[in-house]
Amino acid sequence: MTRPPLDPSQRPPAVVKFGGSSFRTLAAYGQLAEALSRRVEEENTRLVVVVSGRPGETEQFRDRLSKVNPHPEDETVAGLLTLADTVGAQLLATALHRQGRSSTVLAGHQLGLTTDSSFMWARLEHTDPEPLRSAVRAHDVVVVPGGQAADKEGRPTWLGKNSSDLSAVAVAAAVGSPRCEIHSDVDGIYSSDPHLITGSRLLSEVSYNTAALMSLYGAKVLHRRAVRLAQRNRIEIVCRYNRPPFPAGSVIGSAGSSVAAVVLNQRSAALRYETEELADRAYTAFHGANIDVVRLTAGPLVAVTGGFVDLPEFQRRNGLTPGEYAGVPVTAVRGSQVVTQLAADEEDALHLTQRLHDHVNRPGAGTDPNAPLLELQGV
Ligand SMILES: Nc1ncnc2c1ncn2[C@@H]1O[C@H](COP(=O)(O)OP(=O)(O)O)[C@@H](O)[C@H]1O
Ligand SMILES: N[C@@H](CC(=O)OP(=O)(O)O)C(=O)O
């Protein structure tokens, strides 16, 4: 006797995220809706799909806002910049409806994710899983705009720039899914940015600690707080390419061998302060605001990684003596060791990264996590 298939509304849905790079054309919405619909049928599963706005759209909103008010209050920034992801979610939902697929959009204030009231880089404080779970019971596909949440008063908050990964992991935790699949224009974490650095290698198994470390120093692909939230909830992150058949490249979990990687983010900036004490104060202020920042030890230096922070305005608002621009940090990572060097500008950072990457991957370099990385200082 064959058993009836399990009712998909009773099982955790698959949680998948598609970054902005998945929606370079409007045709991408229809193509993705078709592929998602097929997955619902073939795997007899329900889906929660977290989507980002189209590439550059969030920044277009920022640009418009700054023309109306060059120093807008955080609440407005959160209210406006999160709209790009709302647009993306609605476009995907309507593409799914066109396929005849039942779907709904759950926006930040409906999701059950409650944050503090810091608006710009808000911290998740509480999750009520019920809104998501009941939407999953009612629809084949629930579409969630990334980066959105709400504070206790129901006001829209923003989890910060590029925070859709964090939304996806928070959603996976809420619906009890053991896995979160993150789709992008790369199929995983590489030993350096594969679009810029020749010879970048795919890292198939990466530990939470290494992924979080690379992200802290500015590697795009995965959001640092998403990795940490996944680690706390034992959720495996599977990185996949964003076109069918969505091949999986890297898995981020508790396993993962020691890797050698070089992190480049041309938007990162190091600031040099007059004294160590001023650098400490600046670090504390950035860190307290939930912005990715590293206190470099080679001097009174602070690296604000990942970009999209108005540094002069942040320092002014926080009463900090402004630091002087000290260059673009480039960081070599092996195991838990890190060495950061400063490049004069974006162009120089690219050359430095290539040199460091060639060096750590030279034949016979080995992967011993305890071998000193300090030798890199002279490269
Ligand atoms: N170590 C790395 N491994 C893979 N990709 C990286 C790395 N460092 C930087 N990147 C960049 O991250 C990009 C993917 O992140 P992102 O632009 O945020 O994608 P999405 O819009 O899909 O979320 C890649 O296109 C790649 O250029
Ligand atoms: N609106 C978000 C979308 C996002 O998180 O983008 P991505 O998933 O492409 O990094 C942003 O630009 O910050």
TrEMBL record:
Catalytic EC class: transferase
One GO molecular-function entry: aspartate kinase activity
EC number, as in UniProt: 2.7.2.4
Keywords noted in UniProt: ATP-binding, Kinase, Nucleotide-binding, Transferase
Keyword Transferase: yes
Superkingdom of the source species: Bacteria
Pfam families documented for this protein: AA_kinase
Record-stated family: Belongs to the aspartokinase family.
Name listed for the protein in its UniProt record: aspartate kinase
Protein species of origin: Streptomyces achromogenes
